[in-house]
Amino acid sequence: QVQLVASGGGSVQAGGSLRLSCAVYGYTAAPRCMAWFRQAPGKEREGVARIYTDASTSYADSVAGRFTISQDNAKLTLYLQMNSLKPEDTAIYYCAGTYCGGDYRPSSISDFGYWGQGTQVTVSS
Fold first, then answer.
1. Mean pLDDT of the chain, nearest integer
2. In this structure, is the dihedral angle defined by the CA atoms of residues 74, 65, 13 and 41, taken in order, positive or negative?
């Protein structure tokens, strides 16, 4: 079965950087799309970044230019490089995945069937 394990969260001051990782286990049967979501205290979970089968990416406006999503297909690991962090980036970050192919571009929470446990990111001012 597919399992995702997120890591790399921590506490950092505004302007700092963190790199999150998501190890993927058992996801080898078909082309796949991966994503990072986050949920801040008192707020709904929101999409942060997506990467698709063709390696194209998409970002939320709030993080575009600061965050970079990437993956190492050989290691089956997803990454999120976060630079110029802001206090509003404070949240639990979740990695997610789904089977995909062709022109399919999943983006919403319901599009992803596999989720990691989340890793806490705290940015202080």
1. 92
2. negative
Q: Which two tokens stand for residue 99?
A: 């089977």
Residue that wins the pLDDT comparison between 39 and 30: 39
- 54: amino acid identity, one letter: D
Q: How many residues does the chain have?
A: 125
Say if residue 21's pLDDT is above 70. yes
Beta-bridge partner residues of 72: 77
Q: How far apart are CA 86 and CA 90, in angstroms?
A: 8
Cα end-to-end distance, the chain, whole Å: 41
Unique residue bearing structure tokens 């979501």: 37
Geometric angle at alpha carbon 34, from 32 and 38, rounded to 5°? 160
